Amino acid sequence: MIKRVFALALIVVVAFFVFPLFAGIGERTDLGPVATAYLEEGARALGAANLVTAVVVTYRGLDTLGEVTVLFAASAGVALVFGTLARRSQVERRRRPPSELLETGASLLLPIIATFGVFVFVHGHLTPGGGFQGGVVVASGVLLSFLGGTLTHTPHRLLGALETVAGAGYVAIGLLGIWLAAGFLDPRFLPSGEIGSLFSGGAIPLIYVLVGVKVGAELSGVIDAMRHRSDVS
Amino acid sequence: MVSPVYLIAGALGFAFLYPVFEAAGRRVGRGAATAAIAVFLAVTVAWILGLAAGGGPIVSHTAGFAAPLSIDLMVTLTDAVVLTVINTVALFGFVAMAFRRESGWMGKQVVLFFVLLVGSYGLVMTRDLFNVFVFMEISGIAVFGLLGTSRDGRAFEAGFKYMVASALASIFFLIGVAFVYRSVGSLNIADINGSAHLFVDGTAVLALVFLTTAILVELKPAPANGWALDIYEAADPGLSALLSAINATAMAMVLTRVLPLLDPRLLAVAGVAAFAVPHIQALRQESLGRMLGYSSVAQVGLVVLALSVGAPGVPFAGIALPAAIVLLLNHALAKAGLFWIASALRDDRTGSGEAPERAWPASLRGRPVALIAAAMLALALLGLPPFPGFWAKWNVVTTLGASQSYVILAFVLGGSLLEVVYIMRWLVGVSRSPGDDATTVAERIPADFAAPDDASGADADEEGEIAGAGVAVAQEGEIVGAGAAVATVAAALVLLISGLMAGWGAGVGVPLFIVAGALIAFALLDAVWIPVAVQAVLAVGGVGAYTYLLVPRLAGAPLVFALLFGAGGAVQMIAFLSGPARRPGLVSLTTAMIAALLGLTWADSPLALFVLWELMTISSFLLVLRGHRGAAGAFRYIVFSLGSAFLMLAAFAVSNLQLFAGGFGAAAPGPGEAIASLAALGRAGSISVLLLALAILTKLGSVGVHLWLPAGYAEAEDDVSGLLSSILSKAGVFLLFGGALIFAVPLTPRIGIDSLLGWIGVATAIAGAMMALFQEDIKYSLAYSSMSQVGYIVLAFAIMSHLGWVTGLYLSITHMLFKGMLFLGIAGVVSRTGTRLMYQMGGLIKRMPFSFISVLIAIIAVSGVPPLSGFGGKWLLYSALLERGWYLQAALALFSSGVAFLYLFRLIHTIFLGQRKAEHDAVREAPLAVLIPQYLFIVAIMAISMYPNVIIKPLQTAIEPILAGAVSWEGYAVITSLGYWNGNAVMYVTMGVFIAPLIWLLVVKGRVYRVEQFNIVYAAERPHTPQSTHYAYNFYGHYKKAFGRLTEPWIERFWNAVVDLTRSTSHVFRSWNTGNPQTYAFQIVLYLFLVLLFFRGVVL
Amino acid sequence: MTQGLIILSFALMAIGMWGLMSRRHLIRIIIGFSLVDTGVHLLLVAVGYRESGTAPIVSDRLPLELLARRGVDPVPSALVLTAIVIGLAVTALMLSFAVRMYQRTRSIYIDKNKELRW
Q: What residues of C are in contact with residue B1067 (Cβ under 8 Å)?
């Protein structure tokens, strides 16, 4: 109890000191120099209609590579955390079978979800969305099919291979950027095409496809690890 | 040069592709991974070479745009060095983890290891604030994942806490990033630093508050760091090594990036807290992992503190950054190495546990490589020379002194001393002799000799208990994996070499290299099984040659002491010719100690002096540790000695390097100038002299700080004790005389440091003599006698007159001679009889006549009766005391001499006279090699006694430039204002007085009544056990009744109370780390709040 | 608008912190963390907003020429994307550790899972 009082008191006191500092914040009408440069030249320079994608994949591409790495590490970490348990998944406890509604719904929705996911990451440079969002959508399809019982056996080898190929491919594209264009992860070694068309933005769509595949595979791996091992007692 | 981005792309690509390699077999995977790290290492080394040759930093623009549009990676020379160390640790660490016999890393663990590397590379190279966040998370998540595979189930709990803490740090970082971006409009760190003027109010201040807190929290600052310690305790030590070395190093580099935005005062406060608090908390750690963890967080705190150091008004200038980087690198290698040892040992004990089975880690004796590596790493961690951390710490501390930041200085040195306590306790634990329970700090009397009073009853119980418990020694099988061994040794070597190079750069090269060279050369001879006798001959030659080369360059006190150290040391080392052929480390450490002492005499700067002082301390500590039951004594010795060394460091810093400016070299100012420069410092000058005096008194074992001395001298090996007591004890004396008149600086107008010294000298003389009186163990008796004699020397010095100083130097020389003789004589006796307890000996005069003569002459010399040299010393001393008007001191010194006579009489009486024990009927004379040095010393003593002017005149010449004399000569007679002493005449008269009764006694010999050995009438006491009726047991029992109260161990009690107080304080401090992640979250928010208050207090 | 969003985001963080520091149930603590995380994401988005701006995507409604005048700052949007993914990764790991702590001590309460201390 006393702990909660202290915690509350501390939060209130910090807030008391922090909130007055917000007084002078007004609306911005002009952007900073970097943002202005992106908005003025980014679309033309890279051929990507979605400026956020241009920033994410190219200007701050190193962040994104890092982000993929984080997810990759987290997926490996979750697998390791549960991996030290004896492989008791063989003696998996009997689950309640999925209801008919869930089962039918899952098998009906799966292709749609998968297609939508692929659409999202393929069109990342044109519309809101991108590799991560698409990958997550795909993984949610995998989760649904686990729940619906359509997928009982996890294709570990396939997931592993996808992760490796997509990850190494991403790095390879980055290196191609150095050798064929101006720098690491520079997408301009492919033609930038016409702004707004599917084949535009240089290598951006390619990167997003790889990111989508990788994120989908990794999250599926996380779901699988949690599903198989976390209910063991 | 290779573009920085390849390092990240390479490591990341390898992480992604690793499953392919491992599919071809685990060996292939391991090999490929090792090769990959080696390539990364090669790249960073190439960067160092390239950048050192000149040219700007290597930059790579990502995405083909320049910053701030895209993210820049940049490598400066500093970065290249840091990356090289990271890669070095990574290479060793990977070898240690992947090549170990059981549960070696594989699969996703290797992958995560490479991800961790990517994160660290990124943290060091990126110049974009948000990118820092990404790499922070990459390393963080890799560590979390690796934690998940720890053997210890508690790792999950620890990991959870760590995640909560680092999640908060990340959130703070992001808040900071958001507001920074809003204020500056760019995330490029150069742009942000360039806009420092913007961070004055509103959300910009908030940006700094959150950003600073986030980076500091990632550095695990005390007192908001409980979670970090849980990790160190529960994680696999191999992982802890990476965490402590790689992660912390990379994060510290992030802090250096944003320095221009930070207020050095904030860093100083945060750094002091982060450095001092963990050391207090660590004192009671029973888990090695956790203890090393506390040390790690503290060391990072020191780096933060070092970054804040600079000239006043010019933060971060000059030494701050290089010193911080060197501290980081030193810590990275040393700590990683210690963790690898911990991992290989699988022994989590620290020596701090209360329960016996938790007390001491297994001994590493018999595993020389591991032992040497452990010692080197521990010394490096503590920032002792010659390791790189020392040079950095020296810079930090002296700069603190120059900028008059005395409070910070006190915290730094006090914290360092606490670290000495717990790290050395562990080191003593792993390096003690098998069979040593590391509790021996006083003489031990076997259980069947219960003393009449109850005090030693407890000892007896303890003895039995320990005999039953036995002492664990690390077995072959307990060392797991060659990988860790390779890694540890490599880390230690890298530290040693870089440290020696730093020493060369700092201008201390030659004396340092001589010491290190002696140490290494003889250690190598040990390694190839060259017998001790051969080594001893080489060592005697080497020391002789060094002294011979040195003598023509010296004058004054340095010359006197160089001869004392060199000749005294070389002669006593002759004794090593006897004894076992294999005594690893003996000659190596002894020679190093003497070389360090000799080096002291021609040190030409305070730095050189201090380096050699510390080297002398370390090598003698290890010598004591070699003793059979030396562990506890060695532990006390090193704690007090390093305490003394840190006091000296403080003195140098406070005096702004005016003390011993120029050392004893040509550049040294004359005595007058030295005093003038100290006087110019005002109060700081006299404080620094006081600190120096305290340091020296501690090192001399003056009463009050003498606790280390009895066991330190007595528990060393028998033929080493003499070296320690006769030569090593003169190091402090040398500094007294070498410091010339600075000790005459008054503390206050009424109290002079010299009169304090004088009283302490007298008190030490009496206390030592009284303690010596009641010892049953002959070596303890001699050790206390040493303490007493050094007390006389201090007293003589404190007189601050020509005559007093001549006396001091004269006493130093004669004490060296007779204490060397006594200890060697006793060493011979002990080696033949196998006991050190006097009542177990007796009647050895007929079996060991040569030893008897030597001991007899020595005790005549010590006790100050005519005709030998001791008389001259006493005569000079009293004359000088009376001249100065110190009558009370003179009376007390006289009393102390009487006591000295008693214990010396007991020594000769109970060992050589009386009846011989039946079991000693067959003992032989001491080995020739032990007798030779004694007889060489006898020759010297006789010469000095007969012809005092031979020695006194040169001493006068040595002192003349400083204190003009009032002593004149007439033939062989010394004439002072109070009378004269004619050594020749005294000798003849005394001989006559002595020989007449001797002849008479020989005539009446037949009528002697023989007292039976167990004659209880003689003892006149009720026998408790049969043996206690032996006349030699409790020899001075009647005096004990009269004076026993004086020898009550109240000083021991005082220090025990200090220890208890520290331990309970330690517990109070560590209770702050409750183990609950919510408490830790609370602490982190509180930390944020304090930083916020700091900024608002300063800015608004 | 911006000021309101910032205050809102800090309020959200405060609520999350309260949950993180006061709940005993591990999952609730993690939920508290997620709330704080979301608050930060909101803050990032708020920082990038410009008055009457719109998403910086070239389309029929926002031709290339108007982009520089009407588009909001794309950088915070990019940052928030990365931050979300990282938050997801951290949450996943936290949950896995919570599960393993529960498996070890059979208690999902934080005060039963603090063996390591001092």
A: 118
